[in-house]
Write a structure and sequence with these properties.
single chain; alpha/beta; 39% helix; 138 residues; 3 helices
Length: 138
Amino acid sequence: MRFKNGKKGTEMPHVDLVPLMDVILAVLTFFVLSSLSLTRQLSVVDVTLPSAGTGSTEQKTPDPLVVGLNEQGQLILENQPATKEQLASKMQSYLSINPNGAVILKADRKLPYEQVVKLLGEMRDVGGDRVSLAIDQN
């Protein structure tokens, strides 16, 4: 026995999205509530932070030794052209007089980066960890 439906079989089946959206909303609600409860637990941690008055007094740091490297790759010490040997001797004397001092390299931005890094490496061999590269904040 065959029942005939009044509709023809060419109609496309459709998916009802309302139950799917209900499930997604329930899962989303679960994650939001669980994350809120976790953040409340983390904010309860009692930590004693140091205040500005409890720190040690800051030592006065001397003026840094500024070394320039112009666009032609020439070293500049105290507004005068210098050689790498003069730079090494000047750095050694500066760092022996100022144990907390720093040596700063101000290189022209048009120089190849490899040349700047090579000079920084040579300066690091003389000055250790007190050698820095100056940057422009513009």
